[in-house]
Input
Amino acid sequence: MSEFSSRQYDNDEVNRIIRRALKLENEDTISHQDLIETARDIGLDPQIVEAAIEQEQQATKKEKIRKVWLKRRKVGFYSHLWSYLIVNGALLLINQFTPGPWWFQWSVLGWGIGLAFHFKAIFLTHTKKFEKTNKSRHRGTNFMMCNQ
Output
């Protein structure tokens, strides 16, 4: 034990050690009071710990909201994709069974460009878009308070 008395631990190590200790105790959680007492025992101000708990709760809530937002956007994209496939499949059949030149490829191309931009907006730029969307929707109000 004396070889560890002067050792310093970074945040990741502390997190892993505490998690491992909780697993060894067959505990998945720790009470609020135990957390505050543990923080006090290691020299942390309980008010700072309370502030950190509040920040963690807000970050968790914001992450849940972001996941729901992203899921809704993905559902919208998949709905768009199904519409694209069904309508253009029907147009292909109509074009195939009617006389005249092929024309359905123009709807496939035009709508496909729009679908590609929709894909890009959903799957390649979602994090920045979420922040921008929520800042503009909740300008002048507390974002977390609006979504409680």
Notes: The chain has one domain: 2-146. The radius of gyration is 27 Å.
